[in-house]
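Researcher: Hi, I'm a grad student and pretty new to this. My advisor asked me to get structures for two proteins we've been looking at. I'm not sure of the right format, so I'll just paste the first sequence and hope you can take it from there.
Model: That works fine. Here's the first sequence with its structure tokens right after it:
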Amino acid sequence: MNFIDTQWAFCGGTRMGHRPGWTKNWLVQDIAVGLIYLALYLLLRPLSHSIWIVTAGLRLSALLLVPYRQWPALVLADTAGLLYFDLPCLGQFGPLFVTIDSISPFLLAAPAVWWFRSKQGLFPSHRMVKVKPLLWCLVTATLIWTAGSMVTVQTLPLPYSQMGSTPTYVLYTALGKLVGILTFVPLALCFKLRDTSVPLKDQIKRLFTSRLAVDALVVVLPTLLALFLLSRHGQQESKDVIRIFMFVPVGWLTLRHGWRAASFGTAVVMSALFINMSHVPNPALVQTQAFICFATVSLLVLGARTSSENLFQERERLEAKEALRLAQQGLYLCEVRMRQTAYNLEQIAGTLQVTHNGILKRFRHMISLTESQNFFRQASATNAQIYQLADSLHPLSWREKGLPSALRESIGRTLDEQGFVYHCSLEGRGLSKLSPGVHSAIYRFACEAAVYVCENFACSHVSLTLRGGLSHGQRWVVIRLEGKQMPSHINDPVFKNRNTSQLATKLGTQGLGLDSMRSYAHLFDGSMHVKVAADSLRITALLHDINKIKAEQRSDSVPLAMYLR
């Protein structure tokens, strides 16, 4: 029997008392926790041996994750598991050893773990772990349980008790507990600190479809399997080199995906190394254990650093995305105000027209016909200017018939008045499903592009093409405005005498340059390209409707469900 065992337990870290159903009964909760721990202990105990005591990781994980009020249930379950394996050895090792060895290691390490959890802020929040207190907690638990194991060994009859007095055996036991803890605790933390707001089914699906799973299955696991098979043959020197190289793919995976990758990779490597390794204490074995502990801790710290950087980058990305959303919201609010202003101006123009007509009708006998006609023309000109101003702020056709009508009629009428041949075509699908903010951006960008092309290129024909689509759950639209110079219109007097100075005023544009239009496209997560030819100038922009994106898959740094500092 392997009496130098060290164990651990696991049960989810969320407060089960706040969940509906059977979990409202605290006694049922405690019994369930105890049974789950006992089942895991009985499952892992046959795999646990003196050089790789995975039950130590099980026990420490239970102390770290299970609420304090359920610790007594863990102690009882652990004692039952110890008695299950110790009682058959009563005749061989004596009642003193069985009594001492059946004392649950939970009782020894619980005060230290409580101090780290409550006083050192091991878990600052539900999804964060402090690395330094965690590592100190692992070392402290290892030392406490190693001391307990040394005391237990002294209760053995001779010659078994003599082996516990050698320094090699003490290191051998301590490192065995530490590698067992390093194997299990990181995996348990990954499970406990998962994103509980997502259903378990979706969590499993996300895990197996993540980039981490793909890299692990395609690159890391085949490489580790090949190295493991090589390590089973050859000289001892080559085996040591292969053991070192087994951590290389894990390091690559850690650099790409952070703490979760380090937890998974190191657990796989240690399982492969220790399952078939010799259990006889010797200096070479202690060196191997020490190297594995050093490599594992280094990878976990590196993974914690990588996860922190991923978190920082994710926050920057979300902040930039939020800034874009706020900028888009601001533009749309300005568009709403312009629409309301245009509507009010039209109402004022109508009121002025009625007032002027009433005044002229009342004083028609007091003024001459010529003066009456002059007043009427002045009033009509004033009304026309007000309507034109309202139309430049927000076209009436847009309010009454929608965006396609504004693109065809409002822009088309303005360009036609300046002597340009204009054509507008709508292609693709889903343009009507774009958000109102994107509709506003389409119209304003088309107006700015039309003004820029007409003012900076001697063209006679202007064509506007819109193409909408849906890719990966995200709606987008491509705006292409092209000005062409037709040879048949070169000698046209209208072409030569064309005045474009009023275009910006009539279309309500700001006269943006290419850089400003490109920045405008970036506000909608898009881009802009300009193509200049001998007889044409084309401006193409891609805009995304980020407000219509489906629930996107989070990046791997978020499903990590755990950040370390």
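Researcher: Oh nice, that was easy. Here's the second one.
Model: And its structure:
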Amino acid sequence: MKQTSKTITNMQKDIRQFAGDKDVMTNIKVTKSAVKSSLNNNMLPAGTPISQTGTVDEATPIGLLFNDLDFEGIGDDETVTASVMIHGFVNKARVTEYIGKEVPEGVITALKGKIQFL
């Protein structure tokens, strides 16, 4: 078993439009090597579109990464469990800010009926 200690200094990001219990999450296993090109300072930002197989996917995502996923100290072949929103209401402006670009139309289309971008 691997045990680490880390001091967190930044505030947790929230992609939800409304706080409450109407959001549905699922856990997806993500391998660092599968998302390495999308990492920013070893962090995969909240709002990143994620596929069923745990890759960044703007064409056919299953949902959006709910929280920042920290890969610091994680080897390329190691797996981390990510919380992925698969149903709910999302603040589009916050997601745009967190991922550093406009939410791609392919993501909005693929998640239509599951996630509403407000």
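Researcher: Is there anything I should tell my advisor about the second?
Model: You could mention this: The radius of gyration is 14 Å.
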